[in-house]
Amino acid sequence: MKDDPEMSLSITGARVIDPYRGFDAIEEVHVHGGRILAVGHAPTDFEPERRIDGRGLVVAPGLVDLAARLREPGFEYKATLESEMHAAVAGGITSLVCPPDTDPPLDEPGLIEMLKHRARSLALTNLYPLGALTMGLAGEDLTEMAELSEAGCVGFSQASKPIVDTQVLLRAMLYANTHGFTAWLQPQDPFLGRGGVAHNGAVATRLGLPGIPVLTETVALHTIFELMRSTGCRVHLCRLSSAAGIELVRQAKAAGLPLTADVAVHHLHLIDVDIGYFDTHCRVDPPFRSQRDRDAIRAGLLDGTIDAICSDHTPVAEDAKLLPFGEAEPGTTGLELLLPLALKWAAEEGVGLAKALALLTTAPARIAGIEAGEVSGLAPGAVADLCVFDPEVPWVVDDDSLLSQGKDTPYHGRELVGRALMTVVGGRVVYERAAGDPRRRPRRPA
Amino acid sequence: MKNLQVGEDGKLKHLLTLEGLSREMIHRILDNAASFLNVSDRDVKKVPLLRGRSVFNLFFENSTRTRTTFEIAATRLSADIVNLNITTSSASKGESLLDTIDNLAAMAADIFVVRHGQSGAPHLIASHVQDGLHVINAGDGRHAHPTQGLLDMYTIRHFKGDFTQLRVAIVGDVLHSRVARSDIHALTTLGVPEVRVIGPLTLLPGGLDQMGVSVYTDMKKGLKDVDVVIMLRLQNERMRGALLPSPQEYFKTYGLTAEKLAVARPDAIVMHPGPMNRGVEIDSSVADGAQSVILKQVTFGIAVRMAVMSMLAAS
Lengths: 446, 315
Prior knowledge:
Chain A has 446 residues and is of the alpha/beta class.
């Protein structure tokens, strides 16, 4: 970490939500020496260097994002570790899991060490890379998973490049399970969606866009479940997109398979209809599907079939979207929209803040296996990774003012509610929204 | 997303798709086309409506026939016409689509006639160009071919009059057909009560029922009592990729023969956007038979394209 010391800090008057302990009350939070000193009254001799009036705000553990493409190494023209980590902390995120689809892919320990070193010297968020499941993500040869794990990988993934050869997938899962590692798999049959660019449904048919059928997801899920039964390998399913897929996951979980699943936050809101007339901002992978699918995703989150919400942050160069829909690069920016879009979902579904925050903090932390030691969240002694946000401030998304180098979002010009004001990592204030920022609403008189 | 095609004054700004055009607007275009039909019969086949205007034919995908019909239409309106075959120029040098468009727009074009292999490319271009420059979609990917759709409607109106009493069948490769999509939008907008699509399941995309059509896989059932048969062109490459086994089997099951046509109404007309594959999707005896209006479609096509260009760019 950088040399600037952790600050001692007291936040008073805020609603403190700690999904790790099921704690939700207006309380004081005190931070000292990089750790939580107390929630509630501070020790009598505690004199913080900084006091923050938290009235109207929420203090929660920092968000954990299970899917953030940071584009290093290899795609620095799209984004850099530095730009994206700034974006992450501006979004209240303190821990990032990054997929291995860089150039070269994250398939050898040296790359992981380099990435971890870069992250340490930037000292913004915690970084947890996923290693490649196969060399070069080519789906042929296994990576040195044990070495990669030692270097800091928290799981193994093919990102969006499914393994074509099922024998290789079987062996990769057997080998991962040998060491107790989790395979992070995006359920995608490599053939059924070939050439497709949008959900195979009425919208794609109307627009003449080649379709990606739901079968792409369900056929892959059946394969994964059979291989799980045979190998015993734990699997985390990345980016579920369809009602049929979610139903299969529900059944598989009920049958006891060691399984977790996430969904990208945009899929809670957008559907194929939002493509309108070829809006390339809505070209994503997996595709936005029908309203029925979106409803099933929302239901899956409520009943626990889906465990966590991630940003699926994918910075794309602007030029790569100024193309006909079928040629545009899939992906959208997510780090700075994760919290407000999750809050939007919670508000629309009548889900409490505490439950919504659990899907962004505890649940993803458990999936990634990164709960820090014995104490976590806001318990005294836990590492002070905090997100302080205003749950009610409205703001208009302006792609130019996003810190991410990936500016592309279907939400440009739209109003969202809720925004991070301060982010603390290891007791250090790594982000603070400038006081003059018009989006920083004046406090209501208490 | 806002409608790019129709301005706030209700005037046509671009012609990108027939989806969302009002019945009244479609009839207005067809009425205009009717008034241009006799221009082709004159000694001097020209009217001065687009004198001094420049029409750029931008064909990112080759099509001599469609390009020629636009060229003739523009010439008869006295416009200057520039043909650009972009597959062989800038695109192969790595220039981006919108850079190409910016360069051409700077040459003071009034109308871009765009054909592109990607669905939606004309929308992208229309949303990018400055006001006063009009885009006509001459076929984009599988999405739309609105002037073909309009000339098909012109043909049906010419021979059948009232749309609201008709059964229309569209036969063949609907999956890859921009003509089918434009026809479906136009027919449903114009109030045709029964639009049928007929083809093998490998060539019918999902979600067709939501476009207001009924789906048939048995050609004889599908053609029963129809007033209009629109045959679609079948590309040879459909024999690959496990879509169809052979042209012979396709002809046997979905080729239009006199025998199959006999189940349609006796006065049914047979249409085809061209170019035809005789012996694959249509038998010569039908293509050249009394019920075929295929060559009339070509004639009407010039008038329809004149109507669209003049509505977009005449002062």
